[in-house]
Design goal:
The structure holds 2 protein chains of 2 kinds.
Chain A lengths: L2 H17 L2 H4 L4 H14 L1 H5 L12 E4 L2 E4 L16 H10 L14 H4 L4 H11 L12 E2 L9 H9 L13 H11 L5 H4 L17 E3 L2 E3 L15 H10 L9 H9 L6 H11 L19 H18 L25 H9 L1 E2 L11 E2 L8 H12 L11 H13 L2
Antiparallel strand pairs in A: 1-2, 2-3, 4-5, 6-7
Helix pairs in contact in A: 3-7, 5-7, 9-13, 11-13, 14-16, 15-17, 16-17
Chain B lengths: L1 H22 L37 H14 L14 H10 L29 H19 L10 H13 L9 H17 L11 H6 L37
The chains are: A mainly alpha, B mainly alpha.
Bound molecules: heme C (HEC) (3 copies).
Amino acid sequence: MKPVMRSALAIAAVLAAVSGDAVAQDGQSFDRIERGRTLAVLGDCGACHTAPGGKPFAGGLALETPFGKIVAPNITPDRQTGIGNFTNAEFLSALREGRSRGGKLLYPAMPYPAYTKMSDDDVLAIRAYLATLTPVSNAVVSNQLPFPFNIRMAMLGWNWLNFTPGRYQPNSQKSAEWNRGAYIVQGPAHCGTCHTPKTVLGGDKAETPLAGGMLQGWYAPNITNDSRTGIGTWSKDEVVQYLKTGTNSWTLASGPMADAISHSTSQMVDADIAAIATYLKDSGLGGATAAAVAIAASDNAMRAGAAIFKDSCAACHKDSGLGEAHLFPRLAGSALVQADDPTTLARVVLHGTRAVATSAMPTAPAMPAFDWRLSDAQIAAVLTFVRNSWGNAAAPVAAGAVTKQRQSLAAAP
Amino acid sequence: MANIVVRSLSRRSFLASTAALIVAGSTPGFARTIVGRMPWEPGSATPPVQVRPGPWMFFTADEAALVEAAVDRLIPPDDRGPGGKDAGCAVYIDRQLAGPYGGAAGLYMRPPFMPGAATQGYQLPGSPAARYRAGLLALADHVRTAFAGKTFRELAPADQDKVLGGLETGAIVLKDVNGAEFFALLLQNTQEGFFADPVYGGNRDMAGWKLVGFPGSRYDYRDWVDQHDKAYPLPPVSIMGRSDWTVRE
Ligand code: HEC
Ligand code: HEC
Ligand code: HEC
């Protein structure tokens, strides 16, 4: 840019600041900014809009989608490379309709299909908070998708098929706490982005919200109150503990949920976490989906699996499958272990994982990798064993599923 | 908590920059500051690779025949299990000599070289690979001369024992090679092959461990810690598992 032009812009910026633009008129009270900050935590905006090691909200994190890479843009108030020039209407429209400044259609990697539930006031409070950040100059090219997915207009069709804009409608039959939880889960916290099963086009399957979805080689399990595949066996306190600390007496969070917990849920205020738990404990169809029949211990895969478990896993997860609270997850009775989709299980045993560390639970124990020690057939056998022992019952894991996961981990660890 | 992290961070970076100053001009110094928790990355370990049976990697066919015969006298087969040969001791030694051990990669190998005290072990410039090459050649020569053109493998077991015993005591003198030292090296490596994890090619089917009741690479004994008068019931397990891990069709 020519120096003359740059100083002209600088003058314009000063003038705007003095005269007060749309944001400034909004009443920059401390309370409102603080509420906006809380909402930005609920919405986990920072997780996507911050590159690893980069300045907060200055963009640059590449998101893997089934169609290619999308890079989250700079949302600091920088006027050239950020969103400093957005009007409130443009900001509202970007967040809730997926239509950004200048009518640019956003890809749903930005969770506008969830944010659409948010109220004007909440979205503008986020705006007010973002406006207090130091502007960072960082130009980001968001659209790095290959042809034909790089055509933004295609999102018109996608939106038409998959996107239902509209604010959250309170349910008057339920308590205020329940409604607060539903609002957070469906709206700002966009839990369904990962936990709701997707159609082939990547839209939410509206009839089964939060019933379990796949992403980036992880399975985000059913988090409705189903007592076999969901969190039905967890108490409300255990749900709260998990979201607040990353662990409870059942499990420890890893992978994408570890990020969601460290950036978002562990930072939420207690009342909001409790509201989420109240809502989740009352979600889904209730009861338990029909149990599979456990595979007999005399089955060949079960026998090999039992030997492998005894020698390689029992030291941590115990012969009883009960693990150690907050240290080694409990496999007996675990919904994750019995999930229809064994993707996470194969991944965890192949590669190992590290649990999330929160200030309440800083230990972050790790599960060791077994890819060098166990063949695909052996991993399938030990998983079949843990899915069908101690009262667990689930379909056997095929060696081919482990092979597939091993290959995709080798391609993109 | 936050305070502690910040303080230790600046102190550590201070140490790091001092270190950098001190080494500046010689080699570059790198220090990593780790805050919060230890880093964890998948795939950053380098686990051992299972040695597979197959062609010799270091020994010639003649050398291998001699070593297989010798390890089978050092640990002869009997009704309690296989001897050194069937337990894979020669395979173990072969793979070790073909790898970093054979090239003395882990030893300080610069002069001056002088004989050390008995407790200091071997102090001379030969790498294990070079010592085997020279030792086996000298031993084969000795046997050929002393036993009318025969090889070590062709000798009767009693004669093989006599040769090995003569090396051990120094009664047999090899040309240009210290026979007692070579015998000590061979004995030590044979024992390693018999008791090291099968991942390294010896201790086949954990024969050595079964003999002495070693449980192998298990690492949790909580259930047996206070059961004092009972035999430990579980079979040994190698780094790469045991036969029960195989899924039968
Ligand atoms: C799951 C990752 C993710 C989260 C969470 C997320 N965003 Fe985004 N956001 C994106 C991506 C990716 C784009 C770019 C999409 C495109 O270019 O089609 C984007 C685009 C935007 C834009 C449009 C910017 C422009 O230059 O057009 C705004 C504004 C925005 N996000 C604000 C937010 C706010 C505020 C939050 C929190 C409430 C948030 N985002 C949370 C990924 C995310
Ligand atoms: C970025 C994707 C993502 C988002 C967003 C997300 N989750 Fe998760 N969640 C996962 C994954 C993946 C797992 C499995 C974690 C594991 O294997 O340890 C998980 C696990 C869980 C579990 C544990 C289930 C079990 O049976 O072990 C709960 C409860 C949960 N999430 C609740 C939530 C809530 C509530 C939200 C919204 C505030 C949310 N998640 C947002 C991906 C996500
Ligand atoms: C050194 C202790 C240790 C050993 C040995 C071990 N694990 Fe784990 N395992 C863990 C820890 C710690 C976690 C939690 C990691 C996380 O949340 O990221 C875990 C997580 C898991 C999970 C996911 C459960 C959940 O609720 O998130 C499964 C399934 C699992 N392990 C199976 C196995 C199998 C099968 C073996 C043997 C092949 C094994 N583990 C061996 C420590 C161990």
